[in-house]
Specification:
The chain has eleven helices and no strands. With about 200 residues, the protein is an all-alpha fold. It has a single domain, classed as Neutral endopeptidase , domain2 (Neutral endopeptidase, domain 2). It is extended, with a radius of gyration of 21 Å.
């Protein structure tokens, strides 16, 4: 994907309004097992699998280490991991408490929570009505009174997804050729140093 195109589509509020939320709700239903709060009694509790939803979210949004979270979660349950698995536990007490809370919840509550968190993380890409709901939530729970400008939101979004491409565009635009050559040489020297 092209960073400029991604940014342009992000700031295209008319396009966002026209697209609506059908695409994201379809994704929730087909990939994440549905959203019980919307489906009511038609949501199938028997198909709920907490591990599967975490893995699915990791597959599509790897910026959050869902797999690492899952490994830590299993470690607390005394499930032996292979030596090749990497698990980082910095707050063991916190993870124990989270595990206790998760184990005490119904699958309906867990599914609603996971999908709600996913939808909240995607609200900035949704029509204005949903961004307003997110802004009201942020105001109550975080004291944030205003929504940042669309240009700032989209700049951060594109930078989070395509940071290296954005940096390259910036460097090509604002650094002279000599400075770019010096940076390239420094990077090559660092790579050589780190390899040995």
């Amino acid at each position: 994907m092209n960073a400029r195109r991604m940014y342009a589509s992000c700031v295209d509020e008319d396009g966002i309004e026209a697209e609506g939320i059908d695409t994201i709700l379809s994704f929730v239903n087909t990939e994440l097992g549905g959203w019980p709060i919307l489906q009511g009694s038609t949501w199938n509790n028997a198909t709920f699998n907490f591990s599967r939803i975490l893995l699915k979210l990791n597959e599509y949004w790897s910026s959050f280490d869902f797999l690492g979270y899952l490994r830590e979660f299993y470690l607390l349950a005394n499930i032996t991991l292979l030596d090749t698995d990497i698990v980082t536990v910095s707050e063991l007490e916190y993870l124990r408490n989270v595990s206790l809370i998760i184990n005490q919840q119904s699958s309906l509550t867990l599914q609603n929570y996971m999908v709600w968190r996913f939808m909240m993380s995607q609200a900035s890409n949704m029509p204005k009505h949903f961004r307003t709901i997110r802004q009201q939530f942020d105001k109550v729970f975080q004291g944030i009174n205003t929504e940042p400008s669309r240009a700032i939101v989209c700049g951060e979004y594109v930078n989070n997804i395509m940071g290296f491409a954005v940096a390259k565009l910036y460097i090509n635009e604002y650094f002279d050729q000599n400075a770019r050559n010096q940076v390239s040489k420094t990077i090559a020297d660092l790579q050589l140093f780190l390899i040995f």
